[in-house]
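Supplementary Methods, section 5.1.

A reviewer requested that the exact input to the structure prediction be made available. We therefore reproduce it here, unchanged from the version used in the analyses.
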Amino acid sequence: MNKNINNTSNAPEEVVEVGVEVAKNEVATGAKEHPKTEPQAGPKTEPQAGPETEPKLAEKVVRKRFPSWVDLFATVGVFVLSSLVGSIVAIVVMKARGAESLTPDLTLLYYLIQMLPPIGYVAWLRHKAGRPCGVHIGVRKVNLPMLLWGVVVLMASSVVLEPLLLLFPKEEYQNVTDMVGLGGWAILSVVVCAPVLEEILFRGLIFESCRERFGSGAAVLISALLFGLVHGVPVQIINAFVVGLIFGYVYLRTGSLLSVILLHVVNNGIAYISLAFFGDAADTTLRDLIGPDWLYWTVYGLSTVVFVYAMVRLVLTLRNETELE
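The structure derived from this sequence is encoded token-by-token as follows.
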């Protein structure tokens, strides 16, 4: 009797144990058949523009819109205004000295007053837009073969453009060379200050600003166009525009402002040396220097090949840069 009672009381415990084992097996089987899946990420929601995000959005808009065409025209306006102020200051000092014409030191004074305000203005615009300096000296990026190639292209371009430039009157260009003069002050103006200040403004501040907004192709063209326009004299505008294209190509390939400054020094140095040693004969054309026609056209043809090749390389480089951007 007692034995049967004990067996009956143990039966529920055995049933519970069997049920637990079955439940464990079902859980294990279910885990194998239905692997654990990660919850899918829903669409991300952008934070609402509150007081903290509005300044950041405004800053992005300013950075995207700089430089505007108004900024570029304003830069030209600052250059024209500073040129006018420089002329007045130089003339006042000249009259105070009792001189009849501008001396080379006054020409340097005029040039500094002309160039420094536009540089400061564009630098201020970049700072206002939250941009870095934009002047990349790049001492370690100076490329000697590229510099030599630049010198060759500059010489070729001068030969190719000569027939076109001869169509313009020489008087205005002669007035510029007379104002610059010769000697130490002239060397400081033409060979030192002009390459440094002009490249900081055009291939440094303006080029980088335009590249950030419009791309490399527009940066080369806009900086070269402004570089030509500020020279004022028609014969210099055309020549300076082409030279600006060459400088822009070299800067784009090297990323070194120092490379372009050195190339500019060589270009202006050759012009100064020819003026210093040959005087009025410095205006002698290549056609007059080379006697036989066949020799002149041979030189002209070779120069044209070099110049066209350089321009094609410039276009291809700008296309590649545009695709990367």
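Residues 1-20, 27-35, 55-63 have pLDDT under 50 and may be disordered. These observations are discussed further in the main text.
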